Amino acid sequence: MKLDFPRYTERLGAVSIHGVQRIYELDSGKSKGFLTSHETIKKFDYDEISNILHDMAIVVPVKEEKLKLLEGVLSGIPNECLVIIVSNSPRSPVDRFTMEAETVRQLGRFMDKRMIVMHQRDPALGDIFKKLGYASILASDGNVRSGKAEGMVIGMLIAKMYQKDYVGFIDSDNYVPGAVNEYVKIFAAGFGLSSTPYSNIRVSWVFKPKVRNNSLQFSKWGRVSEVTNKNLNAMLSGVTGFETEVIKTGNSGEHALSMPLAECLHYSSGYSIEPFEIVDIFEKFGGLLPSQYRNAIEKGVEIFQIETRNPHFHEDKGKSHLNEMLEAALATIAASKVCPPDLREVLDDQIAHMSGLKGHKKLDYRRKYPIIDPISNIPIDEFAKNLREKVDTFFRYGGLK
Asked: Would you call 175 exposed, middle or buried from its count of C-beta atoms within 10 A (0-12, 13-18, 19+)?
């Protein structure tokens, strides 16, 4: 892969937010060496990308996805990666999870790929989290909450259990396996560019096509992404005093974290997880609040945003889904400790209008979008032992133990 070095960077405390980088070649061929540091283009050859992929797990959260879509996504993930499918699909009246697990089992026979599939609402998993004192991920019934973030956190724990250095996330509703392949290699290139163990790689889609008037319209931004990015930039501008538009990936479902950074972060429930990661990085490492993460402050935290070559074709889940994502993103920003008061006031009014709240009522953000504790709080060896012994929906393929 061949891409440019960051052309522009905003800094907040120990955090570097790099502007969007462009890919010049998806496959730049085999090279005898890499370009020197004074060049503007970075070239990664097969071996360097492959070495990083070997140390990476890809988490695919699933909920009632078409099996053909899931199959396509799995076919696009490079073979070197450990694949972790965390399902929140219904078990009755039709057991969708069993259908997903059987699809993965059958594919595994032909792919010879290391894959794991499990159900996030398995009662035994809830019991394990209770036993380990990790109640922030649990619902009132004692099981793991139904939510995308909760599935992603489970995937991170499994990645840590298998001693992976990096964990990436791919949504299961992507129609183009080649785009999935590109996303994963973007993750690897981003980690290869990073100068710190604490890095977040976020995919910026070149286009999100929509069908209008019987033809494809190649839109640059979705409605939710545009609003989220605008308000994240407004928060950053309010803090620094300098207006910026550097953030372009506030709602990026396709993103990756180095494991040292993943262990530090809190996570916000449901669809608020992607913008909350940026907000939490600002709060923990931006120099605005006291931080307990001295090593990360010293080494720095980098956020990379890399633009794809493939357009992003995904399942259209309707207006209510978009409104849910938008409210979650705005609530995440409004609830931040570093959100400027004037911006918070504007967001409060907007969220109240979206939620149909009357008068001076205000949405309880933390009640609707609970915060999940860092995964570093869990003794991973004990978690792994209990997971293997007690969770009936924990299926492993490709020779995994």
From this structure: middle
